[in-house]
Amino acid sequence: MDSTEELFREDANQWTCEANVLAFEEDGGLILDRTVAYPVGGGQAGDAGVIHADGVSWRFGDTRKSKQHPGAILHVIEGAAPLPGTRVIVEIDADRRQCHRRFHTATHLLCALLPYPVNGCSITQSYARLDFHTDEAFDKDALNAGLAHWVAAARPVRHRWISEAELDANPSLVRSMSVQPPRGLGRVRVIDIDGVDLQPCGGTHVNNTADIGAVLVTKIEKKAAKTRRVVLGFAAPDVT
């Protein structure tokens, strides 16, 4: 089976696309030849949305990578699946995607503020967390000030591809202890926040740090002798 073309890797601003149905996994979901929907991975939750075809709609509550067909992406739909060859339109939940993008980019700012290896990550619509491998104490106020500084600095956020050889020559680019960049493709995707952070990452991000908006460290926890957890949330809107 052909792989699913991952449109979200090149353009996280794209909410919809046309695609062809390739197959359906009875215990998994619908496989398309291309999609804008990000599959759960690297700590980031998968996209949700709706698939339309010929006046019929199927809602998918999750997107994930197929274990049966490497390179294929599953859209976990409700109800009977459209037949292979059906032309469909994929439309993701834009609000959910934007939350993921804002939180994911904010975690990169945290990595710039806290120069420790990362040994855990979770990015959802309502919060994000990073676990840092250190026994150092963190200052919540200082972290919030640092986040606010980089958001206000409005630094461009771009992605590019480097060769595996380039990554091997710069092993310090890899910050995560728990999730390693995929190998075997010959190239690795990196996220470059101008003058702030550069590291391999396959997730979706905003175009500029200003697009993160008001985000705050809501909790700092000591999870183990060498693990400090930082939890992020969105600041409540000012209603005054």
Automatic annotation (TrEMBL):
GO terms for cellular component: cytoplasm. One of its GO terms (biological process) is alanyl-tRNA aminoacylation. InterPro entries: Ala-tRNA-synth_IIc_core (IPR018165), Ala-tRNA-synth_IIc_N (IPR018164), Alanyl-tRNA_Editing_Enzymes (IPR051335), Thr/Ala-tRNA-synth_IIc_edit (IPR018163), Transl_B-barrel_sf (IPR009000), tRNA_SAD (IPR012947). Keywords: Metal-binding, Zinc. Residues 1-230 form the Alanyl-transfer RNA synthetases family profile domain. The keyword Ligase does not apply. PROSITE patterns: AA_TRNA_LIGASE_II_ALA. PANTHER family: ALANYL-TRNA EDITING PROTEIN, ALANYL-TRNA EDITING PROTEIN AARSD1. This is Alanine--tRNA ligase. The lineage of its organism: Bacteria, Pseudomonadati, Pseudomonadota, Betaproteobacteria, Burkholderiales.
